[in-house]
Amino acid sequence: MVSLDLIREISRSSASKIVLLVIDGLGGLPKPETGKTELETARTPNLDNLAAKGICGRCDPVAPGITPGSAPGHLALFGYDPVSCIIGRGVLEALGIDFELAPEDVAARGNFCTLDERGLVTDRRAGRISTEKNAELCRLLDGQLIDGVKVIVRPVKEHRLVVVFRGQGLAAEVTDSDPQQIGVAPNEVSALKRPANRTANITRRFIARAREILTRHHPANMLLLRGFSKKPELPTMAEVFKLKAAAIASYPVYRGLAKVVGMEILETGNTFEDELETLKQNYLSYDYFFIHIKETDAAAEDGDFDRKVALIEQIDSILASLIDLEPDVIVVTGDHSTPALLKGHSWHPVPVLLFSKWCRPDKVSQFSESACLSGGLGCFPATQLMPLAMANALKLNKFGA
Amino acid sequence: MVSLDLIREISRSSASKIVLLVIDGLGGLPKPETGKTELETARTPNLDNLAAKGICGRCDPVAPGITPGSAPGHLALFGYDPVSCIIGRGVLEALGIDFELAPEDVAARGNFCTLDERGLVTDRRAGRISTEKNAELCRLLDGQLIDGVKVIVRPVKEHRLVVVFRGQGLAAEVTDSDPQQIGVAPNEVSALKRPANRTANITRRFIARAREILTRHHPANMLLLRGFSKKPELPTMAEVFKLKAAAIASYPVYRGLAKVVGMEILETGNTFEDELETLKQNYLSYDYFFIHIKETDAAAEDGDFDRKVALIEQIDSILASLIDLEPDVIVVTGDHSTPALLKGHSWHPVPVLLFSKWCRPDKVSQFSESACLSGGLGCFPATQLMPLAMANALKLNKFGA
Question: Fewer CB within a 10 Å sphere, N or C end of chain B?
């Protein structure tokens, strides 16, 4: 991988525009009955047309055999080494609700949960309480001051919340209280390293108070915390790539990931159509757009092959309005594969399509896992995608004399 | 990339011979009217025949998306990491005129230029004065002693010259005086790091004296300096690969690059035919030959698709005399792509052909970008080419027990 320092040295700002369309969990596995993956089953004339005019290949988000979470999957697509740039769950969740994390903040992802009279977890999601109830409970917990540390509590959705500890000298190296199973008591938070002792102590005191406050609010009579983390300090895309980058994503966590690398977050609706409308409205104001579509991954995680196929067809059918904007570079790929057959993220390389006036086209005329096998981009680490997109947008100067 | 230390450990000297033919800027982009690149358009029976019997692929000189200058492009082909081995413009220019740089020398590339009465640059090339006039002016500037440092001034070609500062304790970290544009005054040379303060000072004094000396020589009434650099200390090809390596290149800068890795420079003429004659005459004395052809790159930089095609055909037509020598390994590639459509170096992978008795042939029967897509070498970093050539020449011992 070429270092971000090298890219920073040769990148240049220009009027050309790059659009990265991430179809979450795009890659799949063939259905035994047909021998075709979700993408191969879907009728995708627009994607096929782009593939025919562009260059295709496959990328490994992290490395061959490694199944990535959403964070490494996206960081790699943004050009950042997903192994050295670790983003904790708490930070992601906080960024996803547009919470402005200070550099010293420690954030944890929380669930409201149900404890029985013996103190054992009976439901890790407290019966998926409403987001309104969640907000009401968060107000009860928010704003405590413990040993000079302010504890900020914010609702996310249904049973999910974010807890941010704000103060001097906090450390994120503490264990989760969430046992990730039912029938056991929450774990006691403890320090993984000595400098985190105080943070662990404050967290334990906060959890104890929360239990008291929540005791009358069955089924949400307790909370579980996990993924304690601080925001990583990454150079922004403006610094590295000299891009004015914007993110269009309906799901919080993807907005959060975009924010970590300094993208501006554009308000948008819940559908891909909404996202394309947002793209249109903001097209002149940025030179890089990251557009995220979540539903394909969700369908595949549910094991619903056909729904994923239908969603891909639907995406394809409205892709023309993106193509009509004539971005200099269009990249279509996923942050990882999610084969419906596996009902989860997988390690399989993700199909990649890059279209630009300056790409050297290959013979691929269909956007699919098997067609991409013979693509001109070969199989490559996803971190190479940004330099390639930048090159095809003529945004990289020559390296060396 | 396998380290040079590992190669040094397993390389062995033998009678077998390797010829690396670098067709500068070889890779291209398809002409929209035909869908064929320069190489695909050219009729190349000899190259196709070699491709059919050999193994093909594509290489990235530096990394995907990175457009290399000539120096990184060639260093990679010679097996050296082009990112860590940086060669400055000044050093390149000095080596290219067969100037023997001492390890402590600081070299700068110079242009004679024209200043108007206000001291602003009106022509960065002083009307491209003749090489004879250049030599005459260099003699006026040469040999000054400033603060114990000898300033050596040598003509290159037309308006170009080399200035070498020779003395103790010099540092290359100084800024260019060449503003790279007209209508402005030359920049004042300043130190980028404190140890370069004295060098910057000496350079400023030299430039001031040069201005006085040149004042009556309009249009060449001033000089501009850039690319201050010292010769990098690289292990030679003899040390790493145990090769007796020779370079045959009609253009100075490529001879200079070959010299940096310790090749011997063979005197040759201006044409590929001259170069092949030089190869024949010296064939018994060396076991590695680097042959460089510049014209293809020049044609593509001019945007002249057809001239590049014609040059490739011409190269192919006289290739038989190289093949007839029956080298054990023939490698044909470029140091980078230069598509006529882009009129400049580009990031596109470069087609590679490796012919040897011991290669495992693939199905490629034409030497072209698209045919190389399915070549047995795949797409690989150009630094891997030397180990591959060495292996195919049976010049690498087994690694490990």
Answer: C
CATH 3.30.70 intervals, chain B: 91-229
DSSP B172-228: --B--S--SSSSSPPPPP-BSSGGGHHHHHHHHHHHHHHHHHHTTSTTS-EEEEEEE
For tokens 């095609």, the residue is B309
To 10 degrees, the CA torsion angle through A365, A368, A371, A372? 100
Helix or strand run (H / E) with residue A194: none
ipTM of this model?
0.89
Could you tell me if A381 lies within 8 Å of chain B, comparing CB atoms?
no
Tell me which residue has tokens 């669930």. A111
Distance CA B18, CA A181 (A): 64
Which parts of chain A have pLDDT scores under 50?
none
* Residue given tokens 């400055």 in the structure block: B88
Pairing of strands B18-23, B288-293: parallel
CA angle A222, A226, A230 (to 5 degrees): 130
Helices (H) and strands (E) in chain B, counts: 15, 14
**Contact (CB, 8 A) for B301 and B338:** yes
The CA distance from A337 to the nearest CA of chain B, in Å, is 23
% of chain B residues with pLDDT over 70? 100
User: How confident is the model at residue B190, as a pLDDT?
Assistant: 97
The reply to whether A374 touches chain B by the CB within 8 Å rule is: yes
CATH class of A91-229: alpha beta
Please tell me the distance in Å from B89's CA to the nearest CA on chain A.
6
pTM equals 0.90
pLDDT at B252: 83
Mean pLDDT calculated for residue range B99-128: 95
**Model confidence at B54: pLDDT above 70:** yes
The position carrying tokens 């000079």 is A148
Q: Per CATH, is B4-87+234-392 categorized as 3.40.50.880? A: no
Interface of B with A in 228-267 (CB under 8 A): none
> What pLDDT score does B30 carry?
97
Q: Which residues of chain B are in CATH 3.40.720.10 domains?
A: 4-87+234-392
Q: Which two tokens stand for residue B374?
A: 């399915």
Strand partners, A136: none
Flag whether residue A6 sits within 8 Å of chain B, measured between CB atoms: yes
Total count of residues recorded for chain B: 401
Say what the pLDDT of residue B146 is. 97
